TrEMBL record:
Spans traversing the lipid bilayer: 21-54, 66-86, 116-135, 141-162, 238-255, 285-309, 315-333
Name listed for the protein in its UniProt record: FUSC family protein
Similarity comment: Belongs to the YccS/YhfK family.
Domain Integral membrane bound transporter positions: 198-323
Name of a matching Pfam family: FUSC_2
Record's GO cellular component terms: plasma membrane
Organism: Streptomyces kasugaensis
Subcellular location per the Swiss-Prot or TrEMBL entry: Cell membrane
Family matches, as InterPro entries: Memb_transporter_dom
Keyword terms, alphabetized: Cell membrane, Membrane, Transmembrane, Transmembrane helix
Primary location class: membrane
Membrane topology: Multi-pass membrane protein
Amino acid sequence: MLKRMFVAPDPGRLRLRAACRGVAGIGSAVIVSGLAGHSLVAAIAGGLAALLALFTVTDATVRGQAVTTALLPVVGLPVLVLATVLHDIPPARDAAFLAVVCAGVYARRWGARGHALGVFAFMTFFMAQFLHAVPARLPELSAAIALSLIVSSAVRFGAWCYERRMPPPAVPAPQAGRGLARTTTRQAMQATVACAVALGVGHALSADRWYWAVGTVWWIFVNTASRGETLVRGFRRVLGTVAGIAAGLLTAVPLHSAPAPTAVLVAVCVFGIFYTAAVSYTWMVFFVTVMAGLLYGLLGALHPGLLALRLEQTAVGALAAALAVAVVLPVTTHAATDGWIQRAVHCVRDCTATSARRLAGDAGADPSSHVAELELLLARVRLSLAPLLHPLNPLRHRTARARQVLACLDDCAAQVRGLAEVAADPAASHDTRLTAACQRVEAVVGTLFAPGAEPGAAPSASLNEGPHHHPGAERALAHLHGLESALTALAQPVRSSPRAPFAAS
């Protein structure tokens, strides 16, 4: 796992850039907050706000990122006021916290912006509990948060905006659905119930640190869409917390709140959070846990018993999340995965049709956008299938089925990329066999998810039939036949029952 963190692909060194910019932006925000005369508590609040702004705002365009960042205080500061005013009224405070949880998760239906605003709202309420914010501190905390957001934005959008030189990434549209058919609606209900359970048990364990259990539930539900994903994420959350607590005992406790070495280690943790988030949730949680211990050390509240309590609260949150996804409007791994697989297959079909039009002479047909979308959809399929591929999954037949699905889809992606490359060749000429081959691909896609339809490829013509034309057309035909074969092979794992024994074809 450690090796994976350092050798994982980093195209364009984007993870490295984001991590370095995160350290620079958050460090600058904390320094400016200190120069402005803010207290340690306010400086920590500002640093956390800067971290959230740099970490959670992921709109596809720089303009979109700037708009979302500008909206963060609009959402966060009213929540901060609510949390501080209700700080000494536990029943009202707890009810308000659960309302923020529900609204924050539901906001994910509006994509990256809704997700970022929901996270910031939740974490602002969480931060108020973490720092024991009371109304008397509200003006200073608000000023520190606003100032830190301005400073971190100056770093992100001014001094180091590497995204301006990059094309905006393709973003798959969220899955369709209304009411309880929408995943975000179900997750909002699940997260609220899980947080309510965690809040109650957390209070029983500690009247002061109960919010850790709620925070665990919240972050377990981030970027998950099914029961299996949530369970795996909960396991990784506990694993990362255990490792982080062990590291905290060796680093944070012996420092005895020494400012300089603590600041250096916090910077290392910030770098680790940004650098590992995309490749290892466990390592990200590890760095978050160590950083939390260091911050408690600065606040003079760190001791081994506190770290042990952190582990207990994390376990409570993970168990509450597992209970909620199992009994409250559950979204099964099979249902979530099936939706993403269907979208990926239909994207393959669209790319095939667009490539065929391009080869037929339609200069306006460009399959590259479909290829980019397919890569994103395949990444989402892999994420959705991750619980089935986990080493601790006891259902080996489902693991085998998941592996075959990924192999077939990877084959489809390779054929689609090759087809798009051929279509980009202006010298490639139209071949009448392309139309028939595309129709066969569409026929396989049509039968793949149709109830009662028999899977299997339509009769295919030989690659050697008819006169040979431009080599580009021959290569396109080869890719189309490869697609037909891969989609036909995909029918077996996709159409079989997830509970049935797996028989590889």
